[in-house]
Amino acid sequence: MKNVLLIGVGLIGGSIALTIKNEHEAVIAGYDVQAANCETAVKLGVIDRVSYDLQRDAANADLIIIATPVEATLNIMDQLSSIKPAIKALVMDVGSTKNTIMKKAETLAENGIVFIGGHPMAGSHKTGVESARPHLLENAFYILTPSSITSAAKIEEAKDWLKGTHAKFIVAEPDEHDFLTGIVSHFPHLIASSLVRLAQKHASDNPLVQQLAAGGFRDITRIASSSPKMWSDIVSQNKEHLLSLLNEWKEEMDQVISFVENGDQNQLFDYFNGAKLFRDGLPIRSKGAIQPFSDLYVDILDTAGALSKVTTLLAESQISIINITILEVREGLNGVLRLSFQNDTDRDNAQQLLHQENYLTHITE
Ligand SMILES: NC(=O)C1=CN([C@@H]2O[C@H](COP(=O)(O)OP(=O)(O)OC[C@H]3O[C@@H](n4cnc5c(N)ncnc54)[C@H](O)[C@@H]3O)[C@@H](O)[C@H]2O)C=CC1
Ligand SMILES: O=C(O)C(=O)Cc1ccc(O)cc1
C-alpha cells in the first residue's frame, strides 16, 4: 500500500485523488489550510484521512501532490525542502503557471527532492472538493515540466500515478508553457473579467443591462466566475507574458476602432471572417475536459426508492443525467443528491420538473 499526500483538497486535487483511488492501492491523506475541506473530502470518499501533521505525512509519502493556488504552492515547496532527512516522495503540483514554480523546484532538486511540475489543462469555474469529479481531466492535455534532476523513469512514474485521469500528457519547457497558457487561458480570463466589469459599470445606470446579459454574454464570460484568488496568483506569476499580450491587444483594439470609425464593411467582414475561419478550425475536445458541469442539489428523504423516483421522473422527460452523487453532508437533512447535467438548460428543466413534484432543490455556484 502506497502513501499519497494531497496538499490543497479542492476541485483539482480532489479530482486527481479520485482517479488515483480508481487505479492504485494507496492511502490518500489530505492537508488543507481549511481543515473542514478535508473533513468534507473524507465524507465524500475523495481522501482516506485528514493530515494534521504536514511534516510527518510528507516524510512518509510516496507521492505528494500540491494542488493549492500557485502562490501558496511556492510556500509549500519551501516547507517541503526544509524537511530533514529529505523527503523521498515524488512531488508534483497542478498549478496553472510553471516558470516561477520550476525555479523553486531547483531548490528542491538541490535537496535531492524530485519535483515534476504538472498542469492539467481542464477544470471548471467552480472551486472546492464538492465539485471534484474523476472524469474532470479526461482527454484533456496535461502538461508536465520536469526539473533538472528528473529522470525519464520519474516522468513515467508520474504518468503512471496520473493514468486514471485519462489525460494526454505533454512534456514542455516552463517558459513555453507560460507563453502558451498565457494566450489560450490566462489572457482570455482577463478579457472575460473586463467584459463583465464593463457591463457592471453600465448596469448601475440601466437595470436592463443585467437582464439582457443573461444569454450569450453569460456564456462567453463564464470563466469570470472562477476563483479570484486563484486568478490573481496566476496573473502575478505570468506577468511578463500577460503584459506583452495586453499591449498586443491594445494594438488590436486600435485597429478595430479604426475599422469601426471608417465604417468599411469589407474590413469589418474580413475581420470577423478571419476570426470565424480560425475558430471553426479549432479541434473539438471529445469528452470531459473543459466542459463546465451544471449541477443541481436535491433534498431527498431517506426512504427506499427515493433515488429511483427522481431518476425515473427525469428519464420520463428525456432529461439525461451525466452523474449522480449521494451527499450526506448537510445537517438536519436526510440526504442530498447531486445531479450533474450536460448543460444549464437540462439542469433548469430538471429543477422545474422537480419543483412541480415538491422537491427542494438548490443550485450552488
Ligand atoms: N480550477 C481549475 O479549473 C484549474 C486549476 N488549476 C490549478 O489548480 C490549483 C488548485 O485550483 P482549484 O482546485 O481549482 O482550487 P480550489 O479552491 O478548489 O482548491 C484549492 C485548495 O487549496 C487550499 N489551500 C489554499 N492555500 C493553502 C495552503 N497554504 N495550504 C494548504 N491548502 C491550501 C484551499 O483551502 C482549497 O481547498 C491552482 O493552482 C490552479 O491554478 C489547474 C487547472 C485547472
Ligand atoms: O473553466 C474553464 O473553462 C477553464 O478553463 C478552467 C481552467 C482554469 C485554469 C487552468 O489552468 C486550466 C483550466
UniProtKB/TrEMBL annotation:
<dbReference type="InterPro" id="IPR050812">
    <property type="entry name" value="Preph/Arog_dehydrog"/>
</dbReference>
<feature type="domain" description="Prephenate/arogenate dehydrogenase">
    <location>
        <begin position="2"/>
        <end position="290"/>
    </location>
</feature>
<keyword id="KW-0057">Aromatic amino acid biosynthesis</keyword>
<dbReference type="InterPro" id="IPR046826">
    <property type="entry name" value="PDH_N"/>
</dbReference>
<feature type="domain" description="ACT">
    <location>
        <begin position="295"/>
        <end position="365"/>
    </location>
</feature>
<keyword id="KW-0827">Tyrosine biosynthesis</keyword>
<keyword id="KW-0028">Amino-acid biosynthesis</keyword>
<protein>
    <recommendedName>
        <fullName>Prephenate dehydrogenase</fullName>
        <ecNumber>1.3.1.12</ecNumber>
    </recommendedName>
</protein>
<comment type="similarity">
    <text>Belongs to the prephenate/arogenate dehydrogenase family.</text>
</comment>
<dbReference type="InterPro" id="IPR002912">
    <property type="entry name" value="ACT_dom"/>
</dbReference>
<dbReference type="Pfam" id="PF02153">
    <property type="entry name" value="PDH_N"/>
</dbReference>
<dbReference type="GO" id="GO:0006571">
    <property type="term" value="P:tyrosine biosynthetic process"/>
</dbReference>
<dbReference type="GO" id="GO:0008977">
    <property type="term" value="F:prephenate dehydrogenase (NAD+) activity"/>
</dbReference>
<keyword id="KW-0520">NAD</keyword>
<dbReference type="InterPro" id="IPR046825">
    <property type="entry name" value="PDH_C"/>
</dbReference>
<dbReference type="InterPro" id="IPR036291">
    <property type="entry name" value="NAD(P)-bd_dom_sf"/>
</dbReference>
<dbReference type="InterPro" id="IPR008927">
    <property type="entry name" value="6-PGluconate_DH-like_C_sf"/>
</dbReference>
<keyword id="KW-0560">Oxidoreductase</keyword>
<comment type="pathway">
    <text>Amino-acid biosynthesis; L-tyrosine biosynthesis; (4-hydroxyphenyl)pyruvate from prephenate (NAD(+) route): step 1/1.</text>
</comment>
<dbReference type="InterPro" id="IPR045865">
    <property type="entry name" value="ACT-like_dom_sf"/>
</dbReference>
<dbReference type="GO" id="GO:0070403">
    <property type="term" value="F:NAD+ binding"/>
</dbReference>
<dbReference type="Pfam" id="PF01842">
    <property type="entry name" value="ACT"/>
</dbReference>
<dbReference type="Pfam" id="PF20463">
    <property type="entry name" value="PDH_C"/>
</dbReference>
<dbReference type="InterPro" id="IPR003099">
    <property type="entry name" value="Prephen_DH"/>
</dbReference>
<dbReference type="GO" id="GO:0004665">
    <property type="term" value="F:prephenate dehydrogenase (NADP+) activity"/>
</dbReference>
